[in-house]
Each structure stands twice: as structure tokens, then as C-alpha cells.
Design brief:
Two copies of one chain form a homodimer. By secondary structure, the first copy, chain A, is an alpha+beta fold. Helices cover 22% and strands 41% of the residues of chain A. The longest helix of chain A has 11 residues.
Chain lengths: 136, 136
């Protein structure tokens, strides 16, 4: 069911500053930047082999990433596993006991997404994604 | 210089319990388990596409993973980026301002490894690894 690790996400205070590490120091390529207005986040994706590292910079105070930064400081925030059919995967995982933050897929930075509750993931916030067909 | 994300690591209280999520619920394959006597850790690797998720379970109190679990609870611990030549990568990254936990590569679960200080990684602990030639 799970095809690959689509990306890992890192909460950062500033994407510009974080790129001094990922792009300038490590030499990783920036493949996409975006402003997610509805989630009040700026995001940047850097390539690491067959997967990507997503940098998450909140643009408002009313934001789960802002609260994460206040509580823990910058650092690893979640991982995202890619599936072919998100609705089917949610049904199958729910039957095995998974619980989701939202009951239905919603549009995210990497196509349709859904988050498994961190309690289910033993402290790890796990996103599932089904890439946009036009991008895939 | 960086070839791929070799693995991400998750600190867990119990590998047996964590496998109920990664193996039984998500359906990921366990590809390796090991006991790292010198680091007082049990580890398990599960496959996620071209990369792996490493589960880290401490076997003693005197352990950085034990302290991580006490401070933050179970969750994402570090990421590991693979290189061809670790000594050369350390030289190059040091010239760009990176600092390492240990000045020389040492033997880890995934060949020769070195950790970049989390201060350099903006709160993310980043391991570099050069796989064992016999395993590569």
C-alpha cells in the first residue's frame, strides 16, 4: 500500500535561514517553494535522493507549526508516506485501528493528504499523500 | 555529495510496540534488527521505498536516546544522509562551517557515520553515513 517516503518535514523559524544549512552547506537542491495561504505556511522542498525534505515556516501565530516551534523549537515535525489511493488506504488503515486528524482527504502541498494521529504513530505525526495526477 | 536519505530515526520506548504501528498497521517490511552493544541500543529498520525508518530503543539509562525519551517522549530523533566518501564529505562540510559531534568517522549501524551538531542543523540532528562496502 505504501510506495515510498514522499518527504520528511522540518519546522523552521525562517526558510531563508534554514536554506543556509540545507542548500548552501549540504548542497541540496531546492525543487519547489510555495505559500499555503489556507494553512498560513511558507514551504520549501529540497531534494534528497528519491525523497524530499520539506521546510515549514509559519506565517501567523494561529498555527500548529507556530505552537510546535514555541513548545519544542525548530526540528523534525512529521513524515509523509505516499500511497496510490488515499481514500482506500484510509479505509484499510482505519479497519486496522488507525485514527485520522480529519476523516476525509484534503488538499495539501503534495496532493491529497491525511494525517494519522500521533498517538497512533507512537509520537510520530504521519501524513499520507496521494500525489496530484497532473504532477505524478 | 549527498546521494540519498539513507534513513530517518525514531526514538521508541519499545521496538515490539512500535512494530505494531510500522509493520502491522502500515504494512512496512522489517529488513534488519540489531543490538548495538557499545551504544546500548536495540535497533530495527523498516523499509519505506528507497529509504528506511530506524527504530531506536535504548537498553540502558546512560544513553542519549533515553534522555531524549525522558525530555520529549517517543518521536522523530534524527535523519541520516548517505555519502560515498565520509571523510571527504566531513572535510568539505567543515570548510563550509559544519561542526561534528566526533571529529572522525566511527562505526555505526549503517557503516561509517558522523553526526553534525544540531545547532548547525537548525534543531535537526543530521547523521552522515558511508555504507559498508561489503553491504553496498
Amino acid at each position: 500500500m505504501i510506495k515510498r517516503l514522499n518527504h520528511i518535514s522540518v519546522a523552521v523559524d525562517s526558510i531563508d535561514d534554514a536554506l543556509k544549512f540545507y542548500r548552501d552547506l549540504l548542497g541540496l537542491e531546492v525543487v519547489e517553494t510555495a505559500k499555503l495561504e489556507d494553512r498560513q505556511l511558507n514551504v520549501a522542498f529540497v531534494k534528497a535522493g528519491d525523497t524530499e525534505i520539506e521546510l515549514l515556516e509559519p506565517t501567523s501565530q494561529d498555527n500548529t507549526v507556530t505552537r510546535f516551534l514555541e513548545r519544542r523549537g525548530p526540528g523534525l515535525h512529521h513524515i509523509c508516506l505516499e500511497v496510490d489511493d488515499l481514500a482506500a488506504a484510509m479505509d484499510e488503515l482505519s479497519a486496522r485501528g488507525a485514527e485520522f486528524v480529519d476523516p476525509e482527504p484534503r488538499l495539501g502541498a503534495v496532493g491529497q493528504v491525511a494525517f494519522i494521529l500521533p498517538e497512533v504513530g507512537r509520537g510520530v505525526l504521519v501524513e499520507l499523500n496521494q500525489p496530484d495526477t497532473k504532477k505524478a
